């Protein structure tokens, strides 16, 4: 991989310099936001007051405490209501694994109101990643083969995504399809959300991909070269 990048430079030095500045700005913004979210030291101390013990309280407590008695060597007398556990030990036998497993699988039903609200929410489930991807391919007037070849995705993997509506691909695969379809930043985030991901400024790799999409750098080789220059995992 290193030799390949040294032989072929797809991205210019000016673009890499601009990308470095973009990473620094995004990282600084993320750091400032994280610091602003932390509570001030005075606010923390306000909720954690320190209680001072008045003078002389320790001496008073010591004088009020009853004197300690030496332990007795005689056996304690059994209480009058004590039970003979030796005769009733059979009733405290360990439960069988089947009973324990059944108790762990015990389901407590939701109230009727909450159950109906949950079913209503589940009825409003959003479009899956597979359906969104196929719709975007049709909107871009591309064939399936053109899309997965441009994304450098294996045909078997694409067939799995197409045949399994609930299939969840990796983030790198979802981003590869976004680059192949030349989606905008908003469309890319929408496609990633369908797979359960998002672009975050806390990740240098996500900032690099975001920069490439904003500057319409959709060639996966160029994006991988930019990721490689900053020691980030490739797509």
| Helical amount | 55-70%
Q: Name the shape in a single word.
A: extended
Number of helices: 13
Q: How many beta-strand segments?
A: 0
CATH superfamily of the domain at 127-197: lambda repressor-like DNA-binding domains
Mean pLDDT: 77
Order of helices and strands: HHHHHHHHHHHHH
What proportion strand?
Answer: under 5%
| CATH architecture descriptor text of the domain at 127-197 | Orthogonal Bundle
Head-to-tail CA distance between termini: 13 Å
**Computed structural class:** mainly alpha
Task: Name the poorly predicted regions.
Answer: 85-92
Largest sheet: none
Spatial extent as radius of gyration: 33 Å
The CATH class of the domain at 127-197 is identified as Mainly Alpha
